[in-house]
Amino acid sequence: MAFPPSVRLVEVGPRDGLQNEPEAIATETKLELIDRLGAAGLAHIEAASFVSPKWVPQMADHHEVMTGLRRREGIVYSALTPNLKGLEAALECGVEEVAVFGAASETFSRKNINCSVAESLERFAPVLERAREANVRVRGYVSCVLGCPYEGEIASAKVAEVAKALHDMGCYEISLGDTIGTGTPLKAKRMLEAVARDVPLTRLAAHFHDTYGQALANLYAVLEEGVAVIDSSVAGLGGCPYAKGASGNVASEDVVYLLNGLGIQSGIDLDQLAATGHWITQAIGRPNRSKVGVALAAK
Ligand code: HMG
Ligand code: MG
Questions:
Q1: Is residue 205 in contact with ligand 1, taking CB distance under 6 Å?
Q2: CB under 8 Å to 290, separation ≥6 — which residues?
Q3: Has 171 been annotated as catalytic?
Q4: pLDDT per residue as tens digits for the range 73-105
Q5: Which among 176, 207, 242, 276 counts the fewest CB atoms within 10 Å?
Q6: 222 lines ligand 1 (CB under 6 A)
Q7: Is 208 in the pocket of ligand 1 (CB under 6 A)?
Q8: CATH superfamily assigned to domain 8-298
Q9: Ligand 2 (ion): which residues have CB within 5 A?
Q10: Which residue in 48, 89, 49 sits closest to 69, CA to CA?
């Protein structure tokens, strides 16, 4: 298959990027980050997470973030909702899109959301039903698609099974998460092929972390297969609190640079995005993990 002519980036920095930060980040900093990302052309921004503050304290200001957004036209601001309680709270904030998050690993599922994979799917069904009533779109995540911090290898058949279940339930898009970044290109391609037998490729997104420095190579492999939606995080921020050692998502700046080089449209202003990466890493005292961001700043 050929490269897609354009790619939609889902910017997960304000959620995946910040959720693991130990010190509380001011709500205003989060709002400014989201605003700057929108100004740089990101049209889909995952802004918050309606999870238990005991499990992920950094996302405790979800209400303030979602109601404080300086909304720009044409931008989707989404939020994670693991259960009905989370969804109801998100609906109160006028959310237009949410995401449920499952896993292809039993142990990770228990560590992350305190239930088995089967129980998580049972829990998501009423979330999907309520969201449909409220006219809110639901995205579905599958974590650990290329490896699990607790179980190691994960069978692609299991990834396909969970992805299909989420799709059949009504998730409009399934984001395939290499949560701990252990994947390599051929593995990523084979996993994608297995999932695409059960879920149309046009409904699949790549959510790759860069822990082992493979994320761009893995993205190249799935772009070649035709994947046209990529999740990324400005400055490569982030990590999952329930996946020890996992580093951030692939950096949005690096993805845009790759796409530009391949002649694939993304609608994003790279310089403005890189400036945003520079700003947020300074603001929260983190190193900039985008190679492109660092290179542009040194120019
Ligand atoms: P639980 O303890 O099994 O839930 O947690 P529960 O229903 O028994 O409730 C326990 C307490 O939590 C109660 O409060 C509930 O009210 C409260 P208490 O009576 O003890 O005061 N509660 C909530 N509070 C706020 N919002 C809610 C909510 N639900 C219950 N929605 C639960 C189950 C799912 C809530 C918990 O395990 C949790 O919040 N987990 C979140 C973990 C998380 O956010 N992980 C990071 C995101 S996933 C990720 O990063 C991977 C991804 O990026 C893809 C990839 O990279 O692969 C998506
Ligand atoms: Mg992630």
A1: no
A2: 234, 235, 236, 251, 252, 253, 254, 274, 277
A3: no
A4: 999 999 999 999 999 999 999 999 999 999 999
A5: 242
A6: no
A7: no
A8: Aldolase class I (3.20.20.70)
A9: 16
A10: 48
